[in-house]
Design brief:
The complex is a heterodimer of chains A (306) and B (274).
Chain A lengths: L1 H14 L3 E5 L8 H6 L4 E3 L4 H13 L3 E7 H6 L2 H10 L5 E5 L17 H5 L6 E3 L4 H13 L4 E5 L20 E4 L4 E5 L4 H13 L4 E5 L2 E3 L3 H10 L2 E9 L4 H10 L6 E7 L10 H7 L4 H11 L3
Parallel strand pairs in A: 1-2, 1-3, 3-4, 4-6, 5-6, 8-9, 8-11, 11-12
Antiparallel strand pairs in A: 5-10, 7-9
Helix pairs in contact in A: 1-7, 3-5, 8-12
Chain B lengths: L4 H22 L4 H18 L14 E4 L5 H11 L39 H14 L6 E6 L6 H12 L5 E7 L8 H5 L4 H7 L3 E6 L3 H8 L10 E6 L23 H13 L1
Parallel strand pairs in B: 1-2, 2-3, 3-5, 4-5
Classes of the chains: A alpha/beta (306), B alpha/beta (274).
């Protein structure tokens, strides 16, 4: 996903001289190509994220389109009040890009685990939150973010995730993507757990279920119509995300469902609200927190009664 | 100088009077920090800044970032005195449905460039504007006024370090060093000294000035940058509450407004004489 992001950004920066890239001294092996092609629009801010966000706001007020880049926790949480006051409050055209969504840096422990950022940022007015699930979504989300006038937060995974989508599709901010239709229940996934969820859906289909499978690359604004449609047309809704079970996609979905005039079975599949003590690979941690394909499928089977 | 010293004094007097007039009825705070900044604001807005109140969005204008947003009464009063908007609008300060909030909001009135109120934000934003102007080869300069208490913020020093390293000589900071912050004197709370040496060590060109001597402020700022290839900072030694004897150097006037008619009359009398 990181590669898809930087490749797309370089294409866009070649066409639009307003694009500036600011990094908090991170991005080894990723950002150099931008630096080499656009040295005057590449600024290594040093390990100083508050000044990075303030500087981005100043650039945006001067007609530029700045991107702030670092690992999620450092780009999104360290300078949170700068994102609030400088970027969102003033509604400026700043793009905040965090790498390492979810358990992308699992061995590095919770300082580097992006499991609470969505919940924290989702409350901020004016901010669009994009959480692409594969390289194709990442590329399309990057294009959409740069086209959108206003603050956008994009959280991307790491290197080497496979594509879940087979080809490009019309990416619209705030719109879910229907990967497949079905009538028993709906599974909505966001971000880098999309791959495992796709595998879980395949397992469920094999077991005879008819699954509606949505990818939700925009967490804010949430696609209310897609959720309402799923509630009307299928019998249950499951959300899957590699973040805490408070404040993310599951909560956003529940907020829509709670205001419906009818009741629908709903279940969040996410990380319980504690900082993981376990150390290991992304796969290992996903296994502990029930986010492997067979575990996702098993949870859904357990809760779904035909 | 475009104005005579007498004219500048008159502007400073008008601004101080306006601060009292707008903050007293609504009982807003921060009169002390407003008064310490008035003389600096008068010189900046009437002599130094390349601005046209009739074209507040002119792309080549100098930018002034008022980072000590808590002392907004002085800022709004200066903008009105300079003709950015009608004085009538000052009556909307701090009021139900008014246009002028206790902390300035970007574009709430002509001439308000950024939202401020939280300390440590103005200089980083000014850095971004200075970077953009360097890139665009624009003659526009970026000024930021900081409070002394604000210099406790780490983000200020991140911005200072960055702009010194990147030689942003189109960036000018002014520190309103009135020596009193929110809960005590700067010396007692978190001493900034040696303040001049700190900025110098971060590769800024530094000048110090008596922040209430209009001629000296003018002469300090008339040639910018202080040194080619370095950002400039003017450390202005000021007095909290300057202009009204019973407010001067008193912590309480970080918060208080003029609550009795006697205080109000006395303050106005002293300002008329200033």
């Amino acid at each position: 996903m990181r590669t898809a992001f930087i490749k797309t950004l370089i294409e866009l920066a070649g066409q639009d001289e307003r694009i500036f890239f600011l990094t908090g001294d991170l991005g080894y092996g990723v950002v150099e190509s931008f630096r080499d092609q656009f040295p005057k629009r590449f600024i290594n801010m040093g390990v100083a994220e508050q000044n990075m966000v303030g500087t981005a706001a100043g650039l945006a007020m001067s007609g530029k389109i700045p991107i702030t880049y670092s690992i999620v926790t450092f780009v999104a949480l360290r300078p949170l009040e700068f994102i609030r006051n400088d970027v969102c409050y003033q509604n400026l055209n700043v793009k905040i890009v965090g790498v390492g969504a979810g358990f992308s840096y699992p061995q590095y422990a919770a300082t580097h685990q992006a499991i609470d950022d969505v919940a924290i940022l989702r409350i901020l007015p004016n901010l669009v939150i994009l959480n692409p699930g594969d390289p194709i979504e990442t590329r399309l989300a990057t294009i959409a973010a740069l086209k959108h006038v206003g603050p956008v937060y994009i959280r991307i995974g790491k290197k080497g995730e496979p594509n879940v989508h087979k080809k490009d599709f019309p990416f619209v901010i705030g719109k879910a993507v229907t990967i497949k239709n079905g009538k028993d229940f709906t599974v909505i996934a966001t971000g880098n757990i999309l791959e495992n969820t796709a595998k879980a859906v395949a397992l469920l289909e094999k077991s005879g279920f008819s699954v509606r499978f949505l990818s939700m690359p925009t967490i804010k604004p949430i696609d209310q119509e897609a959720i309402k449609g799923a509630a009307k047309e299928t019998k249950a809704i499951f959300t899957v995300e590699e973040t805490f079970d408070i404040g993310g996609l599951g909560t956003a979905t529940a907020e829509v469902l709670a205001e419906l005039s009818f009741k629908k079975f709903f279940k969040k599949i996410a990380i319980p609200n504690h900082y993981p003590k376990e150390i290991g690979s992304q796969n290992y941690l996903r296994g502990i927190y029930g986010l492997q394909p067979d575990q996702i499928a098993a949870t859904i089977k357990q809760y779904f009664k035909k | 100088m475009r104005n005579s010293l007498e004219e500048l004094k008159k502007h400073a007097r008008n601004i101080r009077r306006s601060v009292i007039e707008i903050s007293t009825p609504v009982k807003s705070s921060h009169t002390g920090g407003s008064f310490s900044a008035v003389d600096l604001l008068a010189v900046l807005y009437f002599e130094i800044l390349k601005i046209d109140p009739k074209k507040p969005q002119d792309s080549l204008r100098d930018i002034f970032v008022y980072s000590k947003g808590h002392s907004s009464s002085a800022f709004y009063s200066t903008l009105a005195e300079r003709g950015f908007f009608n004085r009538k609008i000052l009556e909307e300060y701090y009021r139900d449905g008014g246009r002028l909030p206790g902390h300035p909001v970007r574009n709430c009135a002509p001439g308000v460039e950024v939202s401020s109120g939280s300390l440590g934000h103005g200089l980083p934003m000014a850095v971004g504007m200075a970077v953009a102007r360097k890139y665009d080869k624009s003659p526009s300069r970026v000024f930021a006024m900081l409070s002394d208490g604000e210099c406790d913020e780490g983000s200020v020093w991140e911005a200072i370090m960055f702009s010194g390293f990147h030689k942003l000589d189109n960036l000018i900071a002014i520190v309103d060093y009135n020596k009193i912050q929110s809960l005590g004197s700067v010396k007692e709370v978190l001493n900034l000294e040696p303040l001049k040496a700190k900025w110098q060590a971060f590769n800024w060109a530094v000048k110090e000035v008596d922040g209430h001597n209009l001629a000296k402020i003018y002469h300090s700022l008339k040639k910018l940058p202080f040194q080619k290839g370095k950002p400039s900072v003017l450390i202005a030694n000021t007095v909290k509450g300057r202009g009204v004897s019973f407010m001067e150097n008193k912590l309480a006037w970080h918060y208080r407004s003029l609550d009795t008619p006697e205080e109000y009359k006395q303050a106005m009398k002293e300002i008329e004489k200033s």
